[in-house]
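seq as requested:
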Amino acid sequence: MQFAEVVGQRSVVDSLLRMVSSERIPHALLFLGPEGCGKLTLALALARYLLCERPSAGDCCNECSACLKTGKWIHPDLHFSIPTVGPKATSEAFLTHWRQALAENPYQNVNQWLQRIGAENKQGNITKEECVNIVRKLSLKTVEGRYKILIMWLPEYLGKEGNRLLKLIEEPPADTFFFLVAERQELILNTILSRCQLVHVQPLPDELVAEAVQAYRPLSAAQAQTVAYLADGNLNEARNLVDQAESDQSDRFLDWLRKCYVGKAPALMEWVESFAAVGRENQKHLLRYGLHFLRELVLLKATGREEVRLRPAERETATRLQALVELDQLERIINLLSDCAYHVERNAHPKVLFLDASIRIHHIFQRSGVPAGSS
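struct tokens:
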């Protein structure tokens, strides 16, 4: 990963390059941002730049021995610490999987990673044994490069084990850097946060997401724009949407809303039967689209703004629909769809789940007094 390959984030890249050129790189950097914004790619690019034998003013050379090794994530002075499964697991046992994951999608989320390594319903963690291993590795001399670099992906999974690393982070061996890549600051020990310089990474703008997915897969400009709207700055989500067999669920979702509004049982049953067969990923996609549409509808109804993140046909539907529903009804439907997304992730029976949701949405539309979250 070179800086040139990082999607967007130019201001962060420039800031990192200034740190390097002034030789004032903090020994511990924490790249903090939401999923899919590119924070891991920034850490990877910085590590490669520092280990490069012939760096230019703006990037690594991509040709020297060090670049060839860091390009495959096998440089002996570049170490990784990642969430794993098992009470005594260490990252070293999963490095082959990790390198494959980075090659395929450096914007991945933790669920994708844990499923890759067969976690199923197990929780990921960074264990005591992993922390001991980190201390051991970083106490050794460099093998080939000037620096030793540890990239820890998602230090939120350290928990209290992070206390074992405090002294090492505060007083590291010479020419040693820690790059922590995190999404949820509130889950990181304050004692670790206080020893790191934060690098805030923002979600990607829609236009860059659209360009990136068009480079990833052949899409029309309209399709890429729709994916970017749904992804909301998350390139990992955008790639997931593109990879799905049915990438546009807008017609199906709006048809569902119409059937729920009318409330005729045969039509609802037919829709549920059909939708239950499309597979979990497409069900998740429809719910993501539905939440996106309804939130934009709330914005349209509450503010009257026309600059909503909807295509022209969707905006026309939203304009008609806002006259039929109130904000409190939309809020209840949004909460209900969020609950459905939670249960789909946990393999709920799709026919039961979506038939129940359909009935509840009908009651919400008709104000029948049935709470959206009751059982």
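The chain has a mean pLDDT of 88.
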